[in-house]
Amino acid sequence: MHRYRSHTCGALRDSDIGKDVRLSGWVHRVRDHGGVLFIDLRDHYGLSQVVADPDSPAFKHVEKLRAEWVVKIDGKVRRRPAGTENAELPTGAVEIYINEVEVLGPAGELPMPVFGDQEYPEEVRLKYRFLDLRRDRLHANIMKRGAIIDSIRRRMKEGGFFEFQTPILTASSPEGARDFLVPSRLHPGKFYALPQAPQQFKQLTMIAGFDRYFQIAPCFRDEDARADRSPGEFYQLDIEMSFVTQDDVFNAVEPVLRGVFEEFAGGKKVTPKFPMIPYADAMRDYGSDKPDLRNPIKMQNVSDAFRGSGFKIFANILAADAKNEVWAIPAPTGGNRAFCDRMNSWAQGEGQPGLGYIFWREGEESGAGPLAKNIGPERTKQIAEQLGIGVGDACFFIAGNPKDFVKFAGPARIRVGEELSLVEKDQFAFCWIVDFPMYEWSEQDKKIDFSHNPFSMPNIEPERFLALDPNDNDTILGLKAVQYDIICNGIELSSGAIRNHRPDVMKKAFAIAGYPEEVLEEKFGGMLRALSLGAPPHGGIAPGIDRIVMLLCGEENLREVVLFPMNQRAEDLLMGAPSEVSQKQLRELHIRLSLPDSK
RNA sequence: GGGGGCGUAGCUCAGUUGGUUAGAGCGCUGCCCUGUCACGGCAGAGGUCGCGGGUUCGAGUCCCGUCGCUCCCGCCA
């Protein structure tokens, strides 16, 4: 017999009755009745009930076992007495009568129990991650993650993509996030950077003629964490394709994502054909470039109903600047004062002066609330008709420059949907966001800057782009890039683009953003050289693996789907990273510390 | 860098308008129990109330500071 086990803890069935078996695993739960003693023995594969009574030679040893000890037991499989079977367990028809027990790995008192489903503080969970990972939910999440990645790989390969590995130690690049730096021992004063993404490498792979690239790629960014943004490192399904248009990318990627989601959604609906929403429409309808389409509310411009109306606050805002508008957030079924007041005080909590509203109820079909009285029944009716709402419904209004107020309007729309339970949770609602602006005005630097990835192709004829007057801000700020995002349930899974593969266009693009050719040459010299020596048109995308797994596991936080995550301050409490290093190590790297003052 | 929430036993939490020896469940220790699967019963150990300072006759409770965790903003595809 094998030193540790003849079967796993999830394997035994009634067909095994009478066999002498050996199991190894963790003591999940002990139920000691004095005369008879049950242990649920757990391993990766499942749970088996093992039992001992005073007739067993092992009884006095079994009595000493405690939760999470690792033990090996020898025993005989027997049918459970009639009426004591456990239908919850695949092994529930049988039990193993213990003849011998060996302790392989005892455990001290546990800082957090594995049994049960009580919640524990992150700090304890992360410090004892290996205990947390023994628990059902996390164990299942991590296994599901693996299955999802397998499925993605299979689907990508079926789509004619090949998997590549790209360097982890590379050069710092000026755009995007803060880099993690790695000092060079051989080159004093110089540093490698960990890649924020293999962006340039995948483009170079296309230029090298490989045609269809993918990689489950680790990415490193030294930025602060969020619930849906791991600190430091995360994985992307990195994809790049040659000789493609935007549609080709969509047609390659959409079936992979839809297929993976359908496979792992557990019966939840998945958008059959992802709609394409221009960036400007998304901002206007949803107040966000990552709209949660499970929420049916669409906002509308109702400026006409307020222009020159008796509601002076809004009328004056509209008169003050042609760019100002009044937007309506329709709130179907929200037609009561209590709800409207609740939204109003929520808005005040968000730092707004308030949230104007009209609601319609029986007996006041022409609209109730102070705002309705100010603008009169005719304009109120006009609004109701435009929005297609009526008795039982409400509507909220926001006035000003949409550019500024979307930051509040978007969350307000989400809030209305949540409060009124209009959000259909049992689905994965996808969409593409397309036609992103190429440039934006940087208030901070008082200049035009790239609004997304600087390697994206502007969405106009190259000759017209090259002919642009760099001082023609209006035209430049109106330019679109062939740049797209994919959104699921309001979470941005990815962004991608058709790349700028023409050096002349790239030089011009950087010049408009205020980067002289020398900077471009210095920072992206390799890339420019590559583009100058026969670059195919190419493009791609890079969906976030962790976010995909998070959605499919129904989790709200990335830490629930990452094997060994760091905490919000980018510390690994289990391994103790980051840590101090020895003077010798620093000397080898020609580094002297200059620490901030601390008391 | 900024804002919100939390911090009481190993763990999860309760703790009244400031008032005597700070409680419960799980876990732990000991005893009892031959069919449980959240087994049950009895007894017991275990607490600088995150830390520092202040107000007060008296602080877990009020005030100030500080530290830790977390969520968000900034930042970031």
Task: Characterise this structure.
- The radius of gyration is 31 Å and the shape is globular.
- α4 packs antiparallel against α6 (246-264) and α15 (503-512) packs antiparallel against α16 (517-532).
- With 599 residues, it is an alpha+beta fold.
- The termini are far apart.
- β15 and β16 form a beta hairpin.
- An 8-stranded mixed β-sheet has the order 6-9-10-24-23-22-19-12, sandwiched between helices. It has a 5-stranded mixed barrel with strand order 1-2-3-5-4.
- The relative contact order is 0.11.
- It is built from 18 helices and 24 strands.
- The structure holds one RNA strand of 77 nucleotides.
Q: State the shape.
A: globular
Helix/strand/pairing class, anyone? alpha+beta
Major sheet, described briefly?
8 strands, mixed
| Individual helix count | 18
Low-confidence stretches: none
Number of strands: 24
- The neighbouring-strand order within the major sheet is 6-9-10-24-23-22-19-12
Residue share in β-strands: 15-25%
Radius of gyration: 31 Å
Mean pLDDT: 91
- How much helix, percentage-wise, in residues? 25-40%
For the terminal residues, how far apart are their CA atoms? 63 Å
